[in-house]
Amino acid sequence: MEVEDLVQFGYLAAAVLFILALKWLSHPATARRGVKAGEIGMLLAVIGTLLKAEIVTYQWILVAFVLGSAIGIPLAVFMPMTAVPQRTALSHAFGALAAALVGTSEYYLHTDELSALIMGAIAFEVLLGFLTFTGSLMAFGKLQDLLPGRPIVYRGQNAVNLSLLAGAIAIAITLMVNPGATALFPVFAGLSLAFGVLLIIPIGGADMPTVISLLNAYAGLSAVAMGVVLDNNLLIIAGALDGSSGFILSVIMCRAMNRSFTNVLFGGFGQVKAATAGQVEERPVRSATAEESASILESASSVIIVPGYGMAVAQAQHKVRELYDALTRRGVDVRFAIHPVAGRMPGHMNVLLAEADIPYDRMLDLDEVNSEFPQADVALVIGANDVTNPAARNDPSSPIYGMPILDVDKAASVMVIKRGMSPGFAGVENELYYMDKTLMLFGDAKAFVGMVVKELSASPAGASPR
Amino acid sequence: MAQPDLDTALYIFVLATFVGLEVIRRVSPLLHTPLMSLTNAIAAISLVGSIVIAGSDRGTLSTVLGTIAVTASTANVVGGFMITDRMLKMFKERQPR
Fold it and tell me: Given A231, A361, A367, A386, which residue is catalytic?
């Protein structure tokens, strides 16, 4: 049939455009072209689908288009950049929900004609879809502070989670043998939903970059299963692209924390934390005022700023930009060192700094920047902690030993803006703070950077640029 | 229901995953957040599956589930591309002063 051929051709073009979109995304200079390519691909695919002979009524599709746009557009336009992790978690939830519902509907439509394999694919789609749906909602709740960000743990948690999963898989197998057991399907859906909640609640805020990446991979895989069930190759391709992106990011995040998937998901860190807390001792640190910091920064020739989640919480990125401008005007070379797990999702810090108009060629990642620290006069840490802790390099007994860190301690001098001396997420003391060359700058990141900027603009050196 | 061809599906999945891994490995860490929002928008191609369920008039349950699925996917398609572009617009190279 001619229309169907046309539709398939449109799908193929869309698949090519999606791959090109990701290819162009590899560099900021071509990235926006990538978005265009993706949009055109999507448009082709949707128009093609609307032409399909199976579509007989359009009213609900139109209603849903309007509703979906009414949800999606405000989320894209008004979401502040600090909240991008929340939006991403929500969009994983939406995508997974769609897959789960389509799978559910396919099951009830074709109960009598399902082969074991197709039933298996539907079960996979529904399980991943529903668990990613509730799991992403939990992640959203934690990121949005609707739920406590700290891990929620209880005795026997892993046993409960694993038996839930085992129960769901047992039902899936039963359904593969006997798809007609329709009473089991709602139980299966319920278990999947519950598993998603329980899987995410024990995970702490600082593990969110890994969790979001994992949920991304799950959402992609559920789309693949949906493509298999619906015999739609475009869905399989798009789902595989999404899944591989989530997989790569998960691996990068895990590597950046020197942890395994299972360790993140089954809460190995929670116990370590309990063990090391409590042995915090009072030790002397050197601190400095905004005025002193300003004069040190001003006389430096190379400064590396290390932003962390604390900068995002304090909304300090625009003040940091002013600091960058003030120092750059004085001829100081200012760069930013960004650890892969800084922030609440991969690349979070880069987006915040870019929003504050900091040029992207000033942002360096872990591999690029570590050789630069020994040549830097000042390393200025703003709201980062564990990713700067030299114990990860030096102390085999430390829980974070082996984690790749930013070698901040190799700079000629170190300044750390911090509210107080509380330990970081891992509950580990940071040796960096007690080094002779370290100055602690106590205060709110935004307020402190603001004071430094004020000092810089007031000092006479500002009159003679360079 | 047409019985899907599982062999072909598996081939396509494996090959697309290889392409995906190769292409995405090259994306700079700088752009990992836009990467996630773009792949999310692309995976919202589940919209096409949802449209078929919502529009093929095969009972109330399917229509209701399909309509919710189209709503959710549309939110991702529209929102995903828009916010990706909004983020990418912010990434600028240093202006010569």
Answer: A386
Superfamily (CATH) of domain A290-463: TPP-binding domain (3.40.50.1220)
Which of B16, B31, B44 comes nearest A95 by C-beta? B44
A313, with CB counted inside 10 A (0-12, 13-18, 19+), is middle
Residue A275 DSSP class: H
- Residues B1-55: tens digit of each pLDDT: 556 688 899 999 999 999 999 999 999 999 999 999 999 999 999 999 999 999 9
Q: Residue ranges of the domains in chain B?
A: 29-90
Q: Which ipTM was obtained for this model?
A: 0.95
pLDDT at A278: 44
Structure tokens at A324: 């960058």
pLDDT of residue A302: 97
List A residues 49-78 in contact with B (Cβ-Cβ < 8 A): 49-50, 52, 54-58, 60-61, 63-65, 67-69, 71-73, 75-77
Task: At A441, list the tokens.
Answer: 């700058």
Task: Please give the pLDDT value at position A265.
Answer: 66
Q: What is the pTM of this model?
A: 0.91
Between residues 115 and 174 of chain A, which touch chain B (CB distance below 8 Å)?
A: 115, 117-118
Distance CA A28, CA B91 (A): 7
Is A212 in Cβ contact with B46 (below 8 Å)? no
Which secondary structure element, helix H or strand E, spans residue A149, and what is its range? none
A386 is annotated as an active-site residue = yes
Q: Which of A376, A305, A287, A391 is nearest to A342 (CA)?
A: A305
What phi and psi values does residue A438 have, to the nearest 5 degrees? Answer: -100, 135
**Percent of all residues in chain A with a pLDDT value above 70, rounded to a whole number:** 93
CB A82 within 8 A of CB A312: yes
Contact A20, A14 (CB under 8 A): no
pLDDT at residue A273 is higher than 50: no
Residue labelled with tokens 């799991």: A135
pLDDT at A100 over 60: yes
Compute the distance between CA of residue A443 and CA of residue A287 in angstroms, rounded to an integer. Answer: 11
Q: In the structure encoding, which two tokens stand for residue A125, read together?
A: 């789609």
DSSP three-state, residue B94: coil
Of the candidates B29, B54, B58, which has its C-beta nearest A347's C-beta?
A: B29
Mean pLDDT value across residues A431-453: 94
β A302-307/A333-338 pair status? parallel
pLDDT digits (tens, 9 = 90+) for A45-89: 999 999 998 999 999 999 999 999 999 999 999 999 999 999 999
Q: Which amino acid is at B1?
A: M
- CB-based contact, A427 to chain B, within 8 Å: no
Report the distance separating Cα B47 and Cα B49, nearest Å.
5
Statement: residue B96 has pLDDT above 60: no
The Cα A106–Cα B56 span in angstroms is 12
Which structure tokens are listed for A396?
A: 């085999």
Which residue spans of chain A are classified as CATH 3.40.50.1220?
Answer: 290-463
Which member of A25, A97, A239 has the closest CB to residue B34?
A25
